[in-house]
Amino acid sequence: MARRALRLASWTSMALAASGFYLYGNKYLDPNDFGAVRVGRAVATTAVISYDYLTSLRSVPYGSEEYLQLRSEIHDLFVSFDDTPLGAASLAQVHKAVLHDGRTVAVKVQHPKVQVQSSKDILLMEVLVLAVKQLFPEFEFMWLVDEAKKNLPLELDFLNEGRNAEKVAQMLKHFDFLKVPQIYWELSTKRVLLMEFVDGGQVNDRDYMERNKIDVNEISRLLGKMYSEMIFVNGFVHCDPHPGNVLVHKRPDTGRVEIVLLDHGLYQVLTEEFRLDYCHLWQSLIWTDMKRVEKYSQRLGAGRLYPLFACMLTARSWDSVTRGISQAPVTATEDSEIRDNAANYLPQISQLLNHVPRQMLLIFKTNDLLRGIEAALGTRASASSFLNMSRCCIRALAVHKKKNTRSFFRRTQISLGEAFSLWQINLHELVLRVKALRLASWVLALLCWLLPAPH
User: Fold this and answer.
1) C-beta of residue 45 within 8 angstroms of C-beta of residue 110
2) Could you read off the pLDDT of 7-53 as tens digits, one per residue?
3) Which pLDDT does position 450 carry in this prediction?
4) Residue 356 neighbours by CB under 8 Å, 6+ apart
5) pLDDT, tens digit, for every residue of 89-129?
6) 260 by DSSP, 3-state: which?
7) How far apart are CA 161 and CA 103, in angstroms?
8) Which of 44, 178, 340, 347 falls 20 to 30 Å from 423 in CA-CA distance?
9) Residue 436 burial (CB < 10 Å; 0-12/13-18/19+)?
10) Which of 232, 224, 381 is nearest to 317 (CA)?
11) Measured distance CA(110)–CA(191) in Å, rounded
12) Rounded to an integer, what distance in angstroms lies between the CA atom of residue 4 and that of residue 56?
């Protein structure tokens, strides 16, 4: 117990330091990275599967007679079952198996002690956070405990994860580039989830993409398009897009690129008010309307700290925000400047995180993970990603306006305004592409002039 307390104390200290990184979009705090969640990395043998299916035993020693009995019973469920996991996640690990009907499946198995330990560790974390609050009154981190209490039970229920997977698959079915593995309900429980096995490389693996001739810019564009649709249009957001949960591959039948979205345990459901304010805010940031940036930041709880809030959302300096975040990508100098100054804003960051709506916390985390992927692919803060976001904002606001009017004339007016705004974005994107092509041709011509002709 003392060792666990010491570990949790160190995690709490890390949380204080890590909060500064909100300012530049790196290492956002994950409320689910505390306590027994990380115990899930311990080894879970294949007997755990039979725990939910076939027995009420709490644990089975590896190699024991009981284990061998359960191991043989696993063969009643699977033709083959790989003992070595494909990967270990926070709550569980995944094994590859083959059913008797020939289907290859991924079997997600929850660690047997997570359920029991999680409530104890959350209580311990609450005590530690309160202790930190006594030592440093300016740091307000009780929201970490509140989020853990709310989200952990949902993530521990694999049936809830399966329902989320089916919901998002239906919601985004018009995206032919998105693949959500099918859930096999007949063999799934709260602690064991069976789904379609889908292979691929991690979304931040440039070497894999180069070997398979996958365009990193296309992947970045499609990922931004998918998440913009979730956040601005549907308000149902997959909040754990770390590289292990987002795979890419080419379909063997068509050769088309697919993004595979895994691990659907953690979603954020946005209220309509929050979603619309967030739409307005991002539109204002993209088009550099600073009065509206202030207005909608304050509506989202930022108060007088709205410049810091805008920097946290965009992972850009205030100077870049006021000049226009879509005008130029992030530079190494800007990143370094933000990193160097981040520690100076820790009290304000703490205050801000304590006052924004709880929905915003997981949005921060999601934005951070997506930026990490863009950074790994070398496509961070490209103009196209901001334009895709703006398209989704325009569509979402138009749908809301049409829903709240019965006038045919007014609905037609809204539709025309929406079409015109989308046309403006398309024209702007075309101009940017022409400029990029012209610049590329100038660079090529300059290289040809500078380099001597081959003899």
Assistant:
1) no
2) 433 333 333 333 333 333 333 334 333 333 333 332 333 334 444 44
3) 60
4) 300, 301, 302, 309
5) 657 888 899 998 899 999 998 877 777 777 777 787 778 87
6) strand
7) 21
8) 178
9) exposed
10) 381
11) 5
12) 28
Pairing of strands 178-179, 257-261: parallel
CB 239 within 8 A of CB 365: yes
Are the beta carbons of 366 and 24 closer than 8 angstroms? no
CB proximity list for 195: less than 8 A, separation 6 or greater? 105, 106, 108, 162, 165, 181, 182, 183, 184
Exposed / middle / buried, residue 441 (Cβ in 10 Å: 0-12, 13-18, 19+): exposed
**Which of the residues are catalytic?**
240
Structure tokens at 394: 């325009």
Q: Which long-range contacts (CB under 8 A, 24 or more apart) does 29-32 make?
A: 29/144, 29/365, 30/365, 31/144, 31/147, 31/148, 31/151, 31/361, 32/90, 32/148, 32/151, 32/152, 32/155, 32/266
Contact 228, 217 (CB under 8 A): no
Q: What's the length of the chain?
A: 455
What is the pLDDT of the chain when averaged over all its residues? 78
Cα(106)–Cα(81) distance, rounded to whole angstroms?
A: 10
Rounded to whole angstroms, how far apart are CA atoms 139 and 128? 13
| CA–CA distance, 267 with 263 (Å, rounded to integer) | 10
- Write out the two tokens for 420: 């015109």
> How is residue 391 written in tokens?
């398209």
* CB-based burial, 414-423: b 16+ in 10 Å, e otherwise: beeebeebee
Distance separating alpha carbons of residues 95 and 80, to the nearest angstrom:
11
pTM above 0.90, yes or no: no
Q: Which secondary structure element, helix H or strand E, spans residue 79, and what is its range?
A: strand 78-81
Give ∠ CA 87-92-96 in degrees, rounded to 5.
Answer: 50
Tokens of 121: 């560790």
The rounded distance, in Å, linking the Cα atoms of 218 and 379 is: 10
